[in-house]
Amino acid sequence: MIKTNALYRTVLHRTSTAAALVAVAGLAAPVPALAQYRNEIRNEMGRCQSDKGPAMMVTVDGIKSSSGKLRVQSYRATSGEWLVKGKWLSRIEVPARAGSMTFCVPLPASGTYGVAVRHDVNGNGETDIRTDGGAMSNNPSINIFNLGKPSYTKVGVPVGDGVKSIRIQMKYM
What distance in Å separates the CA atoms of residue 12 and residue 150, rounded to the nearest whole number? Predict the structure, then answer.
């Protein structure tokens, strides 16, 4: 019985030590790939000073009302990420203000990015095609006959190490 208890304690100690080592190794592991996506941020214009890139300074024109929320999301302009659910890099969501609004969208590195803007006029969190508005970088053609998402090649904006300024025109039905 004494030999069994000693053996049990040795096995238990080794198992606990192994579990602790695995846990510590997990802490040192690289950040999961998903951590690069879905960053909800504030609109901090100071992050768009010329020496703080890469970033996009996005001016959204033609906001029709001061009701609801305006959402600006950045994506990598690739076939595997542009407008793919959960693949947005950062999101800024603020109360809408009629006319024009400017946003600073920091980016993880130089590259080609697309920006999607949505005006949820009644603030219900759903897309109401008859009232809500939308827009994308490079202002691709969107109309009643072309409601699908434009290609990443049409919305892609090359951004270097600095701050790239763009203008986006809102569209409503």
Answer: 59
